[in-house]
Amino acid sequence: MSMKYSFFDDYSEGVHPELLRYISENNDDQQLGYGNDDYCKLGADRLRAAFNLPDADVQFLPNGTVANVIGLVTMLQSFEGVVSPNTGHINTHEAGALEATGHKIIWVEAADGKLSPDRIDEALSRYEDEHTVVPRVAYFTQATELGTTYSRSELAKAIEHAKSKGLYTFLDGARLAMAIADKSLGLTLENFGELGLDMFYVGGTKNGGLYGEAMVITNVALKTHFRNHMKQRGGLMAKGRFMGQQFARFFDTDNLWLQLAEHANDQATRLYVGLEEMGIEFDQPSGTNQIFPIFDNDMIDLLLTDYGFYKWDKISDKRTKVRLVCSWATKPENVDDFLWSVSRLVNGQ
Amino acid sequence: MSMKYSFFDDYSEGVHPELLRYISENNDDQQLGYGNDDYCKLGADRLRAAFNLPDADVQFLPNGTVANVIGLVTMLQSFEGVVSPNTGHINTHEAGALEATGHKIIWVEAADGKLSPDRIDEALSRYEDEHTVVPRVAYFTQATELGTTYSRSELAKAIEHAKSKGLYTFLDGARLAMAIADKSLGLTLENFGELGLDMFYVGGTKNGGLYGEAMVITNVALKTHFRNHMKQRGGLMAKGRFMGQQFARFFDTDNLWLQLAEHANDQATRLYVGLEEMGIEFDQPSGTNQIFPIFDNDMIDLLLTDYGFYKWDKISDKRTKVRLVCSWATKPENVDDFLWSVSRLVNGQ
Amino acid sequence: MSMKYSFFDDYSEGVHPELLRYISENNDDQQLGYGNDDYCKLGADRLRAAFNLPDADVQFLPNGTVANVIGLVTMLQSFEGVVSPNTGHINTHEAGALEATGHKIIWVEAADGKLSPDRIDEALSRYEDEHTVVPRVAYFTQATELGTTYSRSELAKAIEHAKSKGLYTFLDGARLAMAIADKSLGLTLENFGELGLDMFYVGGTKNGGLYGEAMVITNVALKTHFRNHMKQRGGLMAKGRFMGQQFARFFDTDNLWLQLAEHANDQATRLYVGLEEMGIEFDQPSGTNQIFPIFDNDMIDLLLTDYGFYKWDKISDKRTKVRLVCSWATKPENVDDFLWSVSRLVNGQ
Amino acid sequence: MSMKYSFFDDYSEGVHPELLRYISENNDDQQLGYGNDDYCKLGADRLRAAFNLPDADVQFLPNGTVANVIGLVTMLQSFEGVVSPNTGHINTHEAGALEATGHKIIWVEAADGKLSPDRIDEALSRYEDEHTVVPRVAYFTQATELGTTYSRSELAKAIEHAKSKGLYTFLDGARLAMAIADKSLGLTLENFGELGLDMFYVGGTKNGGLYGEAMVITNVALKTHFRNHMKQRGGLMAKGRFMGQQFARFFDTDNLWLQLAEHANDQATRLYVGLEEMGIEFDQPSGTNQIFPIFDNDMIDLLLTDYGFYKWDKISDKRTKVRLVCSWATKPENVDDFLWSVSRLVNGQ
């Protein structure tokens, strides 16, 4: 890309060098295929330990769409559906992957991208009898597709409510690292497992990985045939070892996984604070690695000559909300440069 | 694995160091996501050049199951099916992945794993009218799941026949490199494209890659919505760059892709010749990187204490056909060791 | 049912005697199966003539769910979806039948149950690229599931808009007879075909039939494989003759089909006017064969001891909107009895 | 049809007059929709009594394809498949309806159209692990699509074997009446239930019905969500009453259902015996209502000017096996006429 810096997303970057080094240094042995290798075992053990879920099954999947589809399909009979916010990734940006497996998404409006007890109830209220799809799973994302987050108590309450209504609970954790790294939410690696989710996945791709998400399955009944679904839905990689290696390294004693997310969040916070000090408005607080400043359209056009970012929402004829994403690879000077560019425009230079 | 050497398969190994080096040296830039990056463009360009198919579309997919499913689905209306040998990977070892998209596999018995004009006709003869599935695609694998291969003229004839009957033609090339590297078949990178396949994929995983297969789409009508299908079926990787990089390196001027397959074939041939010289029987010639010697069961038990390989078919109560797979990473001494072990058993030591 | 009269729905009744008579008098001959019989030809001819669509294909299907599924599936590639009001039958009361074929319903809020150009645009605006489902069909219902109706110009405008955006247009006509019989709308049998729908179905079940809906296909491209889809989705009846006979009789010179709907509408109008004169409120005008009076909850409880009807919407803690459905079989005295019962309650007796 | 008589199939005829009379005489009351009416209850009660299965659930479905799909889908998780003879209706003549729900048919060669313990084992032997489809249901047809039949002990043995291997057992009874009416098989209405099938359906369409098959569900676990599947797969008829009425009449004290099949079988036997006496050859015995004489091709051409029947299999360049089907409506004189026509040809007139 010819621009100075891209804030488009957290998968614009390559892979964290530590992961490459680990792969490189453990490349000469032979291993069993399809995730039956020693590295997948090690990665799974370290995930179980990190999340304090000693009895969980862990399986590695190549990307988020496949992780969502496979995870949800294991929970559903053919006449059952998934409760999701309208903004859920499965509802908006997976090209109908879940419906392609035969299941309806029972979505509810959620301006903040979150499922609450009330919204769950709204979805459940649509159920009548055999003429309507049976709601069976509540789908959460943390951090959400909108950059918002659940606090620990908020998430615990929604999960508990879903379970009390007989729903399975599934969490899309493509950006879970950034939510755990946001200390204001009260979530830690240690206490996350206590939320009682039936299944969730731990994102690697958006947090410095080559590729790969780790599915953590705590519900015993969902473990039995998980690998059948994996194979059938294209999620079983012949050389699973590389995903095992990445997660073994992510969750080694230095906790690289959390470190990288903290860095991404910190740079986003620096951007937020810097822009706010210049008088740029926001309608949504900072927190994780995505921020959403509102710029004048003129300013956006000028900024786009040097920087990459997405226009998110039209605020008025003259102003637009944009999305800026930082990542493990965003350097402090990238943030400084952007702030300097904005400041020049704000000051009319 | 605790054994001396595994001949289980060609995905027991890590990744070829050159690929890792290339990824490592091109890791610091930012790129667009989802295969829209410069490396995917470069990899695609080099594939187009190598196969002499300047107008083909090239897309990178994470694994073979996903490549088969997505490729075939683009060719099928819901009432249409795929003609395949009974041994076709889609029919035997993908957990019903194609049927899970709603399509029937119209399989015919094929002891050698190949589709011939007669077998295609046999499948077509089952079609009657709207009560029967409409055959729409012929599915070829080269080299096949049984280690057999089509000669150039044999494959050309079968493809031509399928096309003359109004079928699309699709080739699963998970081990295409080994077939092109087998010079006795008459296939070259340059002439492969002349076969006129509508779509085929070029395997990376089994030939030293980290992961990834490259789909080559020559039929114009199938290009338009290929990426919609990719996304919907879980085949669109956010960081496509790594697959682009692997194939850019595979098809660089030194033609690493073909070199690695030649090495694998050579080691398999050495195994074959060595065993034959000791009087071990085969019911199938050598050729690519898989060989199928017939051993006494006693010998197998002893060999399995040191080596890994699969029992393939029972020949009699006392003898069994086994599969030995060599790869880019098989060292000549691995072959020598195995031959030495067999010779000791043959000689009753 | 032990009640005096049921206003639950228009399929509580048996079959109109004329249809039975016609079947009975044409029962002794042998016919080809699967809709290839003389009666299906006759029924189709009469439908083509009645709707002034001489080139249309006509196929008979056993019920509305199957008609919706098959009609829509013929229009969709796997990555495409259907634009529907949230209240669309396919979205609410078919147990996810369309999703079970792999397709997303892209629904928009529509308090009146109708698709307008604006609502179509709202659905289209969700489309971005290969990450989003491609909208491909606009799904209309006339009369709608809420008892509302499109005027001729309103429907024409919405259809035209959908077509201008590249969408196919499909109309669920389970209660089409009642809409055509409602003269205020400006629709006639003769001018309905001019709307240019790609496909619509003509309801039989809810208008006195035994079972069966007639699909009218005007789009040439959708005719070719319609019967393949019919068979695959369970819609091809071995003894299609009985559906052919029903529609042959419905569209005989006396136009029984329209007569029955007029009768149903007339009785509903009598109910509406009678209730209105007693001061019962409505928030939705009369028109076809469904009316929605708002009663006090006390009154509802008393009425339900003698009559059957569904509570539709809560208006306040004390008042509820209910649905009363009349049919071809509703006798004037059934209406009179109900009005008399209400009047006694209104007058406090 | 302009021919003298059609032996094409058992759905060329209209409906048995008794069924029409029963519908006609019970047409004036109002009933609940979707199979919740008094007639469905009565029909179900009589079926339970007739088959001596007091705890079975009974549901009515419009046709055989829908019955097969819905019955089988209730038994299957997405990675599971159905064991069937290659000739099974689901495998040959339902346009891929089962695959369209996502499931593989694991078919085995069966020249006589039947599943035996050995053939079940053959299918099971293809299963390996999560890479292969899990066999989950054994699909039987009685009488089979080839006109063959299982004796009681033969069927009992195959069902028992399937159950011992952990398979569900499902029987397609589109022509069950003819098999029970064939006294040589040892099956009676009373002892059929003792076979222990998890689910089977009782054909109406091919035995004089208007339309409709009755599903009998004995496995408790499969009852719970049967109606959800019915609705989702298009099998829930709004006016279920007419199917309930047909089966109530079929299984009234005169046992019309069995009578009609006996008549059909008797006429087929008369045809068989008559042809055999003239020296016409058969390679398959008589039994139910389908017979398969082998005629010279010249004779076939002449017979087809007056009669309808299907050519079934080529025996040699000069001779062809044809299928003649009798039904409840075949008159003795239809058989006599045909025999007379053949005799004239045999005698060279």
Could you characterize the architecture of this molecule?
Four copies of one chain form a homotetramer. The longest helix of chain A has 22 residues, at 256-277. With 349 residues, chain A is of the alpha/beta class. In chain A, helix 1 (17-25) crosses helix 11, helix 2 (38-50) runs parallel beside helix 11 and helix 12 (256-277) packs parallel to helix 14. In chain A, strand 3, helix 4 (89-92) and strand 4 (105-108) form a beta-alpha-beta unit. The mean pLDDT of chain A is 97. Chain A has helices at residues 17-25, 38-50, 64-73, 89-92, 117-125, 152-164, 176-181, 189-192, 220-223, 226-232, 241-250, 256-277, 297-303, 332-346, and strands spanning 5-6, 57-61, 80-85, 105-108, 134-141, 168-172, 199-203, 213-217, 281-282, 290-291, 293-296, 307-308, 310-314, 319-325. The first copy, chain A, has two domains: 5-12 and 257-346, Aspartate Aminotransferase, domain 1, CATH 3.90.1150.10; 17-254, 3-Layer(aba) Sandwich (Aspartate Aminotransferase, domain 2). In chain A, 38% of the residues lie in helices and 18% in strands. Chains in contact: A-B, A-C, A-D, B-C, B-D, C-D.
